[in-house]
Amino acid sequence: MTGTDRLALSLSWIVALGCVFFLMLPIVITLAASFTSSAVYTLPPPEWSLRWYQSLERRLGLWDAVALSLNLAVVSTMISLVLGTLAAIAVARGRFQGREAIATFTVSPLMMPGLVVGVALLQFFREIGLRDAYWSLLLGHIVITLPFVMRTLLASMAAFDFSLVDAARTLGLSYPRAILRVLVPNLAPAYLTGGLFAFLASMDNYPISIFLTDARNKTLPIKMLQYLEEQPDPSLAAISSGLILLACIVLIIGSRTVGLNRMIQG
Amino acid sequence: MRGRAERIGLLALPGLSFLAIIYALPLFMLLLKSFQIDGQFSVEEYVTFFSDEYNLNVLWRTLRVALLTTGLALIIAYPTAIIMARVKGFWLSVFLVAMVLPMSVGVVVKAFAWTILFRTRGVLNDTLMSLGITEAPIRMLFTETALVIGAANVFLPFMVLPIYAVLRQMDSRLPEAAASLGATPVFRFMNVTLPLSLPGVVAGSAFTFSLAVSMYVIPSLIVGERQQTLSMLTARSFLYLRNEALGATISSILLVIAISVVLGSSWLANRLGARQ
């Protein structure tokens, strides 16, 4: 190794470690701020306390928002997994024109501005007379979750050996059963990764949801931003810490079963 | 067999029709609506939009912030990806967790954390003052610098991961071979590593830029209403001003920017890939 090599490498290490620090900073700050005893965000906290976690109980409507967000995330992810499986099999096994185009189209909502999709859905639902907020939100959230599922399923099915499904069929399983018993368990890592990221994306979505809510159906991110405008006390940091904990759990499940490196390749 | 392979294609129908009706059609209708006034074709809304200096400022600010965010993210991401492609075991896990955990924590939580950090009596100012770098607190919240830093933080993993993916697949013997042939480190980087990593750089930059152009939660928390961006103007025209014509116009502009970035970058990535 020459001197220039060494210099370049040490500089890269400094940037890379700085990058890790930079990425983790908001998470650490939120956790620290949630355990403060004071009513403002002074850091480090003057005294450690759980008061903002206790105050969450009294937050009217917060638990409704949590329940609605969890409901939407779970249901939309489930529906996306079913729709995604069918579409990914078609792309992987079908022999027809435009398979590439289908793959690109089903992943494309990831790259579209969320707010624009939200606006478009708002106008569309009004046009067709869909007034129910829950159903509007659910349909909107499937648009969010489906591309995450498609991305991982398309990648794994391209590498999946479909003769296993054919073998199961010659042994007497019907096609749907062969898919459920052979393909799904074999692609469990893809289902888990795609599903987990889809779930988290739905839990977090603000720009589409804001256009589809009504006074009674507010998802957690909408409720959080509303609190921030009304009474910006550290109870918001406590809610955020709860969401960080959720992300950690999801990540641990993912890394234990799939491995981190495979998760990001999805 | 031919018949069966064609019938398998039908499995795509439920998902495709869903996205066609609940995603593509509404977007198309939105685009159509922006070219209509009272049912007649018209570009008047666009003329009005582009002849207002305030709107042009918002458009320029949105593009500038997105460019700066992409640039900052790239500067941090490239060396990080280089190191990630070299390390194994413990250090690789550290980097992967640092990428995936923030990606899994929502943007609302992170944008909110940056408002805590940037507060006038916040962590950053306290640190700067106790280090004696500044005497009085600096106003950070509501500035464009704060917005770019916050946005780069949120989108960094989307820049690092594509570059890392490309570099990891690169045969590490290539730079070594160049070295054994007497290439200097600078020459090696410019002629081997950099060109091979360009598809990753293009993909990461396109993703970061299109996310940053259309971000809404981060600017509305970090800079607030004082410095509007296109997304904030869209949300305002729909949710508060009830000016749907203006909202449809701005959304269509955002849509066109996003689509051109996606198409342009995939064309560029293909070309770069083909050349190798």
From TrEMBL, chain A:
InterPro entries documented for this protein: MetI-like, MetI-like_sf
Domain ABC transmembrane type-1, chain residue ranges per copy: 66-254
GO cellular component, one term: plasma membrane
Pfam families: BPD_transp_1
Recorded topology in the membrane: Multi-pass membrane protein
Transmembrane annotation, as ranges: 12-41, 61-89, 101-122, 134-157, 178-201, 235-254
GO biological process: transmembrane transport
Alphabetical UniProt keywords: Cell inner membrane, Cell membrane, Membrane, Transmembrane, Transmembrane helix, Transport
SUPFAM superfamilies: MetI-like
Name of the protein this chain belongs to: ABC transporter, permease protein, putative
Automatic annotation (TrEMBL), chain B:
Domain ABC transmembrane type-1: 59-263
CDD domains the UniProt entry points to: TM_PBP2
Transmembrane region(s): 12-32, 58-78, 90-118, 138-165, 202-224, 245-269
UniProt keyword annotation of Phosphoprotein present: no
GO cellular component: plasma membrane
Keywords: Cell membrane, Membrane, Transmembrane, Transmembrane helix, Transport
PROSITE patterns: ABC_TM1
Lipid bilayer topology: Multi-pass membrane protein
Protein name: Spermidine/putrescine ABC transporter, permease protein, putative
Organism: Roseobacter denitrificans (strain ATCC 33942 / OCh 114) (Erythrobacter sp. (strain OCh 114))
